[in-house]
Specification:
The protein has 291 residues and is an alpha/beta fold. It contains 11 helices and 13 strands. Helix 10 packs parallel to helix 11. The N terminus and C terminus are likely disordered.
Length: 291
């Protein structure tokens, strides 16, 4: 990195990473560090992995402690913030708000889907002088490329299932429901709900074990919602997604190239090849022609 670029990075201060569950926050942190950017983790209790957080500069916090975050982030010199990692929307009684958090809760929108809620939080950050970033802006290398990650590719019939799944997700997107569906033989067999992709895959695997679903194979399709603020909650796949797809008896995973985050890409590729399933990035408006 040139001295000029390093000076620009240092003037921005360290990046505040609000850290939820899973491996993705650490992939983003490592990428930022590789690019010469300092980081400070704000690890959410009950979600972030304690064993991994300890390796980074960090502060532990709870959902709702917004004032504490703002105070410490300013003390650390942070001007930019990224929210990354899994967080299941909690009941209000499980949030631990400080006074600023209570004020924020009175302003943000809790009714509606996740995109509406998270967009309200992004606006709050901006109003308090922080610049929210998407994980892909910090670490563009974690985005899913177009084409297959490993050695397996979808068949023509599976590409048709992918196109159908994308159409379904586009249709339900305005209702802020979910970002994933399972399609097999042109039948929509599951749509992601509040529990997220992992829960949908586990439920699907259970139905298949009990012979409640008789079709073979199938494809997991993921896509961002139309009009979604892409700084937040982009669809993501990781090793757990591949393991869940294998347990569910699926033939592969497809998601939008350039708009899907891949956590631990090499592990995803190796896991997919070991399970003999495909992981493929498809174009948003031409999925059926992608191979």
């Amino acid at each position: 990195m040139s001295d000029l670029k390093r000076a620009v990075k240092e003037s921005e201060g360290p990046l505040a990473i609000i850290c939820g569950g899973g491996s993705l926050p650490f992939a983003v942190a490592d990428a930022a560090l590789r690019h010469g950017r300092g980081i400070v983790m704000f690890a959410l209790r009950g979600f972030a992995d304690p064993g991994r957080v300890e390796a980074y500069p960090h502060h532990w916090t709870r959902l709702g402690q917004y004032g504490r975050f703002c105070r410490i982030a300013r003390q650390e010199g942070c001007q930019e913030v990224v929210c990354v990692g899994s967080v299941v929307r909690p009941a209000v009684r499980h949030i631990w708000p400080d006074p600023a958090g209570l004020l924020l809760m009175s302003r943000i929108v809790f009714r509606g889907g996740d995109n509406r809620l998270l967009s309200s939080i992004m606006t709050a950050f901006e109003n308090d002088g922080f610049r929210p970033l998407g994980a892909h802006e910090v670490a563009p290398e974690i985005l899913l490329p177009e084409g297959a990650l490993g050695g397996f590719h979808p068949t023509r019939a599976q590409r048709e299932d992918i196109a159908l799944g994308l159409s379904v997700l586009h249709a339900i997107g305005p209702f802020d429901v979910g970002q994933a569906a399972i399609v097999a033989d042109k039948h929509v067999l599951a749509v992601e709900g509040a529990g997220g992709t992992d829960e949908m895959l586990a439920h699907f695997a259970d139905l298949r074990r009990r012979s409640r679903i008789r079709s073979k194979g199938g494809v997991l399709i993921k896509a961002p919602k139309p009009g979604q603020d892409r700084r937040i909650d982009l669809p993501a796949i990781g090793p757990h997604t591949v393991e869940g797809a294998e347990r569910a008896g699926l033939a592969g995973i497809a998601s939008i190239a350039g708009a899907t985050i891949v956590a631990e890409g090499e592990r995803v590729r190796q896991g997919a090849d070991r399970a003999r399933i495909f992981v493929v990035g498809v174009r948003e408006h031409a999925a059926s022609s992608n191979g």
